Amino acid sequence: GTRVTVYSKTKTGWSQIKYKSKKAYVSTKYLKFITKRASFLLDKTKVYTYKGTEGSYQLIPTRKKYDSWDIWYYATPSDKQKFIVGEDSKGLYTGYIDSEYYIDIKYPAKVGQKWDIGYEGEGQARITSVKKTVKTPAGTFKNCIEVKEDYGYIYYYAKNIGQVKTVRDGITVMELVSLKKK
């Protein structure tokens, strides 16, 4: 039942581990690997700055909760609105306090996963890749989820970051330009 860090596994059935601050080897068959589900939730310690066809805006964490949802500000140079984001074993969501919410990603996040979108389920979204590399002015993000909607939008989500880019008809509609500590 001891937790160890696994450095590598060999083809002959052994794993190099860290045990009591030292490297050691153990038969891989005696190890139980625990994998955490990747999170695509916004990082509450950061301020996100996006630039898009409609101008620039920021997502600013309030560090407050609404039930189990995190409260954020969507801030433009002339306006500031609250919205909420949440994540559970069934998906990643965005919404508004005491109002509707939307499924951004349905879990498990795998190619082919589909869900209804729109106010009355007028269309569908689907995961078309879980290994996209996406470049934005804020950096290069690997192993992003690509979500395509029937409306022609393509969204890209990075692990532990959230949405980094949106494209429609080959044109970048929105992209992350800065990610700074709050």
How does this structure look, described?
- With 182 residues, this protein is mostly beta strands.
- Helix content is 0%, strand content 65%.
- The protein has a 12-stranded antiparallel β-sheet with strand order 9-8-7-6-5-4-15-14-13-12-11-10, with no helix packed on it. The protein has a 3-stranded antiparallel β-sheet with strand order 1-2-3, with no helix packed on it.
- A hairpin with a 5-residue loop joins β10 and β11.
- The chain starts with a strand and ends with a strand.
State the order of secondary-structure elements, H for helix, E for strand: EEEEEEEEEEEEEEE
- Separation of the first and last Cα atoms: 38 Å
Give the beta-strand count.
15
Report the helical percentage: under 10%
User: How would a crystallographer describe the biggest sheet?
Assistant: 12 strands, antiparallel
Q: Strands across the major sheet, in which order?
A: 9-8-7-6-5-4-15-14-13-12-11-10
List keywords for this structure.
mainly beta, 182 residues, 12-stranded antiparallel sheet
Task: Produce the secondary structure layout.
Layout lengths: L4 E5 L4 E6 L2 E6 L18 E7 L2 E12 L2 E8 L2 E10 L2 E5 L5 E6 L7 E4 L5 E14 L2 E11 L3 E6 L3 E7 L2 E11 L1
Antiparallel strand pairs: 1-2, 2-3, 4-5, 4-15, 5-6, 6-7, 7-8, 8-9, 10-11, 11-12, 12-13, 13-14, 14-15
